[in-house]
Amino acid sequence: MEKIRFIALDPVLTGERIECVIRGSGYSVREIQEILELLCPQSIYKWMHGRSMPSIDNLYMLHRLFNVHMEDMLVPRDMSGCWHWREGILPVQNGEKIRCGMLPWHHMKTFDFM
Asked: At 97, is the secondary structure helix, strand, or coil?
C-alpha cells in the first residue's frame, strides 16, 4: 500500500505567525479589517489566537499586503506534536525585517500516513 504524505497545520502557531507579521507591519488590526473588507476585527483576532484560520482569499490578501509568501504564514506540526522551531526572518511592506521565530513550512519535514 502506498503511503500518502500530509502536512497538518497548527492553528495556534499559525495565528502567532500571522500576529507577528501584522504587528511588524505597522498596520493596525482595524486597518487590516478595512483593507480585507471584513465586517469586524474579531475575525483577525480569531486568526491571531488560533481559534480560526483565514480563508484562502484572505491569506492571499495578507500575502499581497505584507509581501510575505502565503506558506510563510502557515506553521505545520508533525504527528508527534514536536515542532520544528527555528529562527526566521520575514520581510514586511516597509522594507524592514521582523523576527518571527520559525522557518517557512517548505523547510519542514512532512510525515507519512499508512
From this structure: strand
CA–CA gap between residue 11 and residue 9 (Å, rounded):
6
Please give the grid coordinates belonging to residue 61: 490578501
DSSP lists the bridge partners of residue 99 as 89
DSSP 94: T
Residue 108 has pLDDT above 90, yes or no: no
Q: Render pLDDT for 35-78 as a digit per residue (tens, 0 to 9).
A: 999 999 999 999 999 999 999 999 999 999 999 999 889 888 76
Separation in Å, CA 101 to CA 46, 72, 84, 104 = 21, 12, 10, 10
Domain CATH for 64:
1.10.260.40
Q: Is 13 helix (H, G, I), strand (E, B) or coil?
A: helix
**What's the domain count of the chain?**
1
Task: Find where cell 465586517 sits.
Answer: 39
